[in-house]
Design a protein that fits this description.
The chain has 258 residues and is α/β, with parallel strands linked by helices. It has nine helices and eight strands. Strands 3-2-1-8-7-6-5-4 form an eight-stranded mixed beta sheet. Helix 4 packs parallel to helix 5.
Length: 258
């Protein structure tokens, strides 16, 4: 499995080196938060992403703005939260197709409708829905069961399961992530407050859905980047609009217009 960490504080070279020394290996991925979460976290910056990528570390961005009251509401609130997450992720440059786990804390009681609204909102915007939740949360398990039956976006959403095997330690336990209502974990938050409380220890079955570092070929001079379909479509639309404007102007001149 692939070692990762998450932190509420910004990533710096010193923090990366401290976590690497404490865990005796460099993390393969790092989870950071898009917003403050009510003051507990410092929102991620693009500079942090660039630093992590330079260290060969993948990045996972997490939506932590919704609170207990939000997740207890219905589909419209879930959709609003998804829209806000998408806006923040795009501002950082988070690529389409990446996961944005929605944070559902252990004491909260989310509704199935909220999960559907959040997951479908992300999927419609081109991102992959996912959820962070505690393995022992009966309320989340109940909501997930109903939401998965109602929405393919929820049914396919990866789970990042918090099931601590310790707190304050710097060990990396072997993979034994717990499932939630029979749904296996793709990511596991295994140890809390490691490296002197600076990070939590996580593991992942794969880096799929994370923001991977650019490959050397992508950075090489003269390397031809693969065309982006969305940019191509915008270019075609621009050309069509330009041609239409030219034809309209010619028609006006032919009819004696200004």
């Amino acid at each position: 499995m692939l070692l990762g960490v998450d932190s509420a504080s910004p990533v710096t070279p010193a923090l990366f080196d401290q976590a690497t020394a404490a865990l005796k290996q460099a993390p393969r991925w790092w989870a950071r938060y898009l917003r403050s979460g009510g003051g507990a976290a410092t929102p991620v910056t693009r500079a942090e992403v660039d630093l992590l990528h330079a260290r060969g570390c993948a990045v996972l961005l997490v939506w932590n703005h919704a609170g207990a009251r939000d997740v207890a509401e219905g589909r419209p609130t879930g959709a609003v939260q998804a829209a806000l997450a998408v806006e923040d992720a795009r501002r950082i440059g988070y690529p389409a197709g990446c996961m944005i786990p929605g944070d559902i804390e252990a004491p909260w009681h989310p509704t199935a409708e909220y999960l559907v609204g959040y997951a479908e909102g992300l999927a419609q915007a081109g991102y992959s829905p996912a959820f962070y939740a505690a393995s022992g949360s009966v309320a989340f398990a109940d909501a997930l069961r109903v939401a998965s039956a109602a929405s393919a976006a929820v049914a396919g959403a990866p789970l990042w399961v918090a099931a601590w095997e310790g707190a304050g330690g710097d060990t990396v336990p072997p993979w034994r992530a717990q499932s939630i209502d029979g749904v296996p974990a793709r990511l596991w938050q295994a140890v809390g407050s490691a490296d002197g409380g600076r990070v939590d220890v996580d593991e992942a079955a794969a880096l799929q859905g994370m923001w991977l570092p650019p490959t050397p070929a992508q950075d090489a001079p003269g390397h031809a980047q693969a065309p982006d379909p969305a940019q191509q479509a915008l270019a075609r639309l621009g050309s069509a609009l330009g041609a239409a404007q030219t034809a309209y102007d010619a028609l006006r001149r032919a009819m004696g217009g200004a």
